[in-house]
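Anyone up for a design puzzle?
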């Protein structure tokens, strides 16, 4: 049995609940902190990113103007052991200098442009690729763009929701357009817009892949992995669940792989 992307979302939502406060924020400028996190999380687990952000905050540099005037080596030491921490330090300094010159250090002002204009500007800046740009646009700017990350590819390649797609090989833009088109028929409640739906779905996919759909040795029948990847209050609320992966009934990997359906 297989399901649609809409059914994947519904099952994850029913299991995990509404992830409204999924992105932990510690400073006064949420948009800039999301941008910082989106850059740092490339090739890095969130635990290391969060600790780096907290070190930057403790050092008094959690703002575009502060990082724009920072020296590369001290900033790099604060980011360590984030992957490519020296390159990311250099890229963030360049980014923040640009942001201060062209947008007065205001991420929200840059993201207030139409989606395509803001995306094109982000992609011209260092350390920003398609996925990072869309994370920033979606979470920090409220632009309705579905983020395609490694977890998204991994989960959909295993579940194989209808209609089929070569989830692990297809180009970023094609996969993004496919997902958005398949979700387009959903009836949104008055309290939700497309950006909120995409952000919630992306957050749920990440939670699913951290708890059940692990890269190695997926925990299809549970219990969920007890990885604690944020100091944010409430992030361990799902760890008492004993009913296994919420996608087993529609997951091709579970139905045809090394697991026997229960």
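Challenge accepted. My sequence:
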């Amino acid at each position: 049995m297989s399901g649609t992307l809409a059914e994947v979302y519904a099952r994850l939502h029913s299991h995990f609940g509404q992830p409204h406060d999924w992105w932990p924020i510690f400073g006064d400028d949420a948009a800039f902190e999301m941008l910082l996190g989106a850059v740092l999380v490339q090739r890095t687990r969130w635990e290391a990113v969060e600790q780096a952000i907290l070190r930057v905050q403790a050092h008094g540099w959690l703002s575009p103007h502060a990082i724009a005037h920072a020296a590369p080596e001290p900033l790099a030491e604060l980011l360590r052991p984030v992957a490519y921490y020296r390159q990311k330090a250099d890229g963030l300094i360049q980014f923040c200098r640009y942001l201060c010159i062209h947008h007065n250090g205001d991420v929200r002002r840059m993201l207030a442009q139409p989606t395509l204009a803001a995306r094109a500007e982000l992609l011209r800046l260092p350390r920003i690729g398609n996925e990072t740009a869309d994370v920033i646009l979606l979470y920090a700017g409220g632009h309705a763009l579905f983020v395609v990350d490694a977890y998204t590819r991994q989960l959909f390649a295993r579940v194989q929701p209808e209609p089929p797609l070569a989830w692990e090989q297809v180009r970023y833009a094609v996969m993004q357009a496919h997902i958005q088109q398949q979700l387009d028929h959903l009836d949104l409640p008055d309290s939700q817009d497309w950006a909120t739906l995409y952000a919630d779905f992306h957050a749920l996919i990440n939670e699913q892949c951290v708890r059940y759909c692990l890269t190695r040795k997926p925990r299809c029948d549970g219990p969920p992995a007890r990885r604690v990847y944020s100091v944010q209050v409430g992030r361990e609320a799902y760890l008492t669940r004993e009913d296994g992966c919420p996608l087993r009934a529609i997951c091709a990997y579970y139905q045809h792989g090394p697991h026997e359906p229960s």
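A detail worth pointing out: DSSP finds 13 helices and no strands in the chain.
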